[in-house]
Write a structure and sequence with these properties.
This protein is α+β, with helices and mostly antiparallel strands. The protein is built from 6 helices and 6 strands; from the N terminus they run H-E-E-H-H-E-H-H-E-E-E-H. Strands 2-3-4-5-1-6 form a 6-stranded mixed sheet, sandwiched between helices.
Length: 255
């Protein structure tokens, strides 16, 4: 019976250490435009359909076609990307995006790719015998999230496209709260520090930041777009009139 309180004490200490795991995150962007809307916007758009393509899934045939992309933010899965980009676009640029009947429907193809750069972090952990990452903050790891947005015409051909890359930098400490210290370096969004157990909320927070950047990218492309390119082209065959050639003079045979 005396062992039970000791065991509970050990479990409590371990749980406290695990709950103490912390992280700090910052984010910058490449390819994010500065959008300046004209004083009077004459056309509004609504995102009617999004064709989401994950390049990571294409490279990993085992996950391609599974119905759920495991490389994205959780809030982007199962159609969430399309819903979220329309919502963030309306929030950021309500003059340009709307659900009104008069809004011009657009179809997007979003090509997604992410890359992790963790070589330096792993090397530092090995050199410090995991002291960095377990006790002290790890070496900052960088994750690049790139989305190329293409505006499609009714036949599915891209008429305008642009890419935006979000660079997320993060460090962690698994058994101490040291990583609550802001990760060093510039950030275009408010730096975030939290418990690792709060990762789901962090996921949504930074996916919203990326969506805001994509909404700016889409707005900038729509401002440059000729709306005529979004109209369906006629597939009816054109009739070319037959040309009748009449000679200027007629030569009769000589009998």
């Amino acid at each position: 019976m005396k062992r039970l309180p000791r065991l509970m004490a050990i479990i409590t200490v371990l749980a406290g250490l695990l709950a103490g795991g912390c992280m700090s995150t910052r984010m910058t962007f490449e390819g994010r435009p500065k959008v300046t809307l004209p004083a009077k916007v004459t056309r509004q758009y609504t995102v009617e359909k999004v064709d989401f393509v994950c390049e990571n899934c294409r490279r990993e045939a085992g996950r391609w076609g599974s119905g759920e992309c495991l490389h994205t933010f959780q809030s982007w899965r199962k159609g969430g990307f399309g819903e979220q980009i329309q919502q963030r676009a309306e929030l950021r640029h309500p003059q340009l995006f709307s659900h009104a009947r008069t809004a011009i429907p657009i179809t997007l193809r979003a090509t997604y790719n992410n890359e992790d750069h963790m070589g330096a972090m792993i090397a530092v952990e090995l050199l410090t015998l995991t002291a960095c990452g377990a006790v002290f903050p790890s070496w900052p790891a960088e994750m690049d999230y790139t989305v190329r947005l293409a505006i499609l015409d009714p036949e599915g051909h891209p008429v305008q496209d642009a890419a935006c890359t979000a660079k997320l930098v993060q460090w962690v400490s698994l058994f101490t709260p040291f990583a609550l210290i802001n990760v060093p370096g510039p950030s275009e969004v408010p730096k975030s520090s939290s418990c690792i157990l709060n990762a789901t909320s962090e996921d949504k927070l930074f996916s919203d930041y990326i969506m805001d950047a994509l909404a700016d990218t889409l707005a900038a492309e729509l401002l440059k777009l000729d709306p005529a390119k979004l109209r369906a082209t006629s597939s009816a065959p054109t009739t070319v009139p037959m040309e009748t050639v009449t000679p200027d003079t007629v030569t009769l045979p000589n009998f």
